[in-house]
Write a structure and sequence with these properties.
By secondary structure, this protein is α/β, with parallel strands linked by helices. Helix content is 48%, strand content 15%. The protein binds nicotinamide-adenine-dinucleotide.
């Protein structure tokens, strides 16, 4: 994988950054895209290496994506791996779910991956190599009350994954979705904290009583486990895997 160029959207977030670090540590050129310039500047300053760069970018803006991909290709001469990872959560039952929020979440987690894939494919085809990994979720496979927008977007993202995999199969490009269960990230810890407050329970009790009964391994996943999976799928060893929704969930969906 050395000297490959990888673009990670949502790259300052917990899972995105773990993916970015994994690829950087193994000699790849990493470009992170995320909303806030200060966070990107802080990370790139900390790592201080020309092979770890980033752009402030709203992934729902196709012009921005197009311009950034042009710059990345100009600089690194390839776009080998695209990880569509940017995402967000909002939990409310359908009748209380703001329609604008529903639209926005589909834009970020479904339309934006479509646009990024569309912009990346010509570069991948030119080089005869490409790996596209879409960060779905177990919520792309099963329902969860209160998560209508998130689950709709993630189910759709798996559909998109299959279609693009079929369209790109002749070009040495693979397209897969990863479906994590609960990962130990601020996004999940905040949700647990909310449940803890509502139920007047300590956080550890929420894990024991609400989350662990759902997860046979009785633990949260580490972001590094997701990063390792993305890394494996990007390698030549995984060239036969395409169009799949690959689950990493501690056994959650086996039940
Ligand atoms: P996170 O909140 O730490 O990271 C998400 C990142 O996406 C943030 O940095 C955010 O700024 C960025 N983002 C949001 N909207 C954006 C936009 N319009 N343009 C550019 N960037 C934008 O969350 P995370 O836990 O690291 O989640 C990363 C991905 O993994 C998400 O797609 C999430 O749905 C998925 N996922 C997470 C878990 C989990 O347990 N944390 C489980 C399954 C799937």
């Amino acid at each position: 994988m050395t000297s490959k160029t990888i673009i990670v959207t949502g790259g300052t977030g917990a899972i995105g950054l773990s993916i970015a670090r994994k690829f950087f540590e193994t000699g790849c050129r990493v470009v992170i895209l995320d909303l806030f310039q200060e966070k990107i500047d802080a990370l790139t300053a900390e790592i201080n290496n020309g092979n770890f760069t980033g752009f402030a970018c709203d992934v729902t803006n196709e012009n921005e994506i197009q311009m950034i991909f042009e710059k990345v290709f100009e600089r690194h001469k390839s776009i080998d791996v695209l990880v569509n990872n940017a995402g967000l959560q909002h939990v409310a039952y359908v009748e209380e779910f703001p329609t604008e929020k529903f639209r926005m979440m589909l834009e970020v987690m479904l339309t934006a991956p479509f646009m990024a894939i569309k912009q990346a494919l010509p570069y991948m085809k030119e080089k005869g190599f490409g790996r596209i990994i879409n960060m779905a979720s177990v919520n792309g496979l099963i329902g969860f009350a209160g998560k209508s927008a998130y689950n709709s977007a993630k189910h759709g993202l798996i559909g998109l994954t299959k279609v693009v995999a079929l369209e790109t199969a002749p070009y040495n490009i693979t397209v897969n979705a990863i479906c994590p269960g609960y990962v130990d990230t601020p996004l999940v810890r905040n949700q647990l904290q909310d449940i803890a407050q509502t139920r007047n329970l300590p956080l550890e009790k929420v894990l024991e009583e609400v989350i662990f009964p759902l997860v046979p391994q009785k633990r949260l996943l580490d972001p590094a486990e997701i990063a390792n999976y993305v890394y494996f799928l990007s390698d030549d060893l995984a060239r036969g895997i395409t169009g799949q929704a690959l689950v990493i969930d501690g056994g959650y969906t086996a039940q």
